[in-house]
Queue: 2 jobs
Job 1
Amino acid sequence: MSAAIDFYFDFSSPYSYLAAQEIDKLASAHGRSVEWRPMLLGALFKTTGGVPLVDVPLKGAYAIHDFKRSARYSGVPFRMPSAFPISTVNSARATLWVKAQTPARTADFVRAVFKAYFVDDRNINDVDQLAAIASEIGLDAEALRAAVADPAIKDALRVANEDAVAHGVCGAPFILVDNEPFWGNDRLPQLKRWLTEGGF
Amino acid sequence: MSAAIDFYFDFSSPYSYLAAQEIDKLASAHGRSVEWRPMLLGALFKTTGGVPLVDVPLKGAYAIHDFKRSARYSGVPFRMPSAFPISTVNSARATLWVKAQTPARTADFVRAVFKAYFVDDRNINDVDQLAAIASEIGLDAEALRAAVADPAIKDALRVANEDAVAHGVCGAPFILVDNEPFWGNDRLPQLKRWLTEGGF
């Protein structure tokens, strides 16, 4: 089996949500696994000087329109959350805990959290909600509560953010295939061709 | 024939160059013409607070890589210009003059200027170069020289920039189909489906 595909994402990124619905099917069709890499866009923005897209004049209004249309284009359910964007520090920490404890459940947890936010409008930074989501998919809710407050997990997220910057991650989703970078859900067609042809 | 497709672009935008290779084939396949709308990204940036992509930490390095790969993906020749980005005020003015004088030649002129910049590395803000490009495709070089200094053409470009902001144009290329906005060369697949299905 070839090296894993690195999938860098932020739970508050609609384009990450859309790409997360397809990335492991795409990977496994080419004999790859997915390394889910939660991180915080806010940490990147300290390097890039970026601000949330929806806060930019002109781009903000377009972006919300495009989130919804891109979801329809991909056939993925989507509802604009009532609070957007939000801090995703707890959902990112919780994901690192799932990866460490039950790695085979990581994709299930990631998609459950994305769905909670972008379909069911739940507050995915709230620890009660995260514990409930864990419980709904058969993970240990009490252990999750402990994990998001665990200094080792907090450290792991700091390291994950630094790792993202070190790898040139400049937005989300950001996908690395054998060091080849693809930024954005709209680069999945190029990624697919890259995997099929071994580059182009 | 249905309403024209509005194609807003800046000659210094590689993604505009790529989209310009496809937009009129796509339009005519759906009984549409293309309204070529040159404008200056710098004028938009006053509203959006934007800066050229290549000047943004992390994003800059990725962007140059992505320009080249996106060109290969589309099968379009591309060479990163030695000076980038540059002012495109004269090439935009020259285009407005072509549109006014010989509208049927607008697409030819636009593609000749894009090729001069993104394939042949010519300085497309230089009036001598623009006059030469006009001459190469059978347009009146001396009339072009006069046009780029004509106060009426200068005014027309100011109005074009204001029109872009008024229509919510937040980057380039930016395409309007019956008021439905598509930003970016990577939205051509959605645009194609929109034209085919009359929306989705």
Note: DSSP finds ten helices and four strands in chain A.
Job 2
Amino acid sequence: MTTPLPQFYDLITSGGEALSPWCWHARMALAHKGITVERHERCFTQKQELIDKGGKSFPLLIDSDGSIHADSMDIILHLEESRPLPSLFPGGTATLAAYRFMHRYVQTILFPTVVSIILVDIPDTLEGDDKAYFIESREKRFGKSLAEVCADRDTALKTLSVQLDPFRKAMANGGYISGDAPAMPDYLLFGVLQWARVVSPVQLVEADDAIAAWMERMLDLFEGLGRTAAARG
Amino acid sequence: MTTPLPQFYDLITSGGEALSPWCWHARMALAHKGITVERHERCFTQKQELIDKGGKSFPLLIDSDGSIHADSMDIILHLEESRPLPSLFPGGTATLAAYRFMHRYVQTILFPTVVSIILVDIPDTLEGDDKAYFIESREKRFGKSLAEVCADRDTALKTLSVQLDPFRKAMANGGYISGDAPAMPDYLLFGVLQWARVVSPVQLVEADDAIAAWMERMLDLFEGLGRTAAARG
């Protein structure tokens, strides 16, 4: 009997581009460990299918042993435990602790800033029910229109530049946020900037920013995995 | 010939309490490595003495070999290079990169919030010329009175609680920001909270906050080194 491939449920735009930052975290982690998955492309309005399978939202990983991993952090920790090498957290518990720090920073501080720049552009990448669902659910979540969420992009871009500075400092140490080679902290920021790259024409960082050069290197990883989703900008 | 002890210049209040967050970073790093220093207590108005010795500001370390290390990051990197064990960055380059991230986060995001809570309390810990120097130099730096910098403490305390959340997540991994045992990332946050503890009666975190329990453990380290400076609260 052949072991079934892990099943990975990914979120796409109506044009077929993988967009979710959290899905990209997981995809990069899978690629880092050289794990081949059967990838299922799903739209926003197909989320219920993931919930029916035991998931919560995008991404969902059902591993070869049938175990269900229902958000990106769960997926990442499961991959690290089940296939320790190459490690997503080289350096051990201290690095995992630092990753939890960075992850929370991205979730609560950096991500909301990026939202206030690109949210209004997302409906243009969606069609029909998906577009209606996205607008309605986000207007409900934020309590205002998407245009109002993104009403002051110029200020948000300046805030973002400051908020990216800790990442710039980290990569000054060896070219990557993780030091000499990319690891989970790099995939963390990559996911967010990749999301922006796919859904919005706005350039989040200037061309001469160290982050821009790093992003190109990240897009080159794993035979250009990140470039399989087209940039909108 | 006996090797001279490293010379460490530390900043104190008029009451003799070591207050500088950056000096505390370096002191905790020295203690972590078990390095005995000759410690020189100096006031704000004695800064020129440090500059004359080749420093920039507080802290200043003149090592046994005569080498001069003129800010806390320089001191820390020098200690790690000259006395590798026990490491301040267990896990190697990935952990050092993560530390640079956290350090920048503290410098540019968390520290300014703490300033907007406690700055106005600092003159009460100073006397005479030191007090006058502090008020004048800070009013010039901020372009307003210290009371104006701290005009909305309640909002700043709420902001701080959110900004501490990445640290809470990191310490959930093993009790310390660095995982299972304290290391430089712990001394980083400790320095800032210790500064607040010494100069201000305001409690920055609630008693039931995980940060409060962690701070007590940090104050116990190295035979209660942190407790050698009295709390003002």
Note: The CA atoms of residues 122 and 199 of chain B lie 5 Å apart.
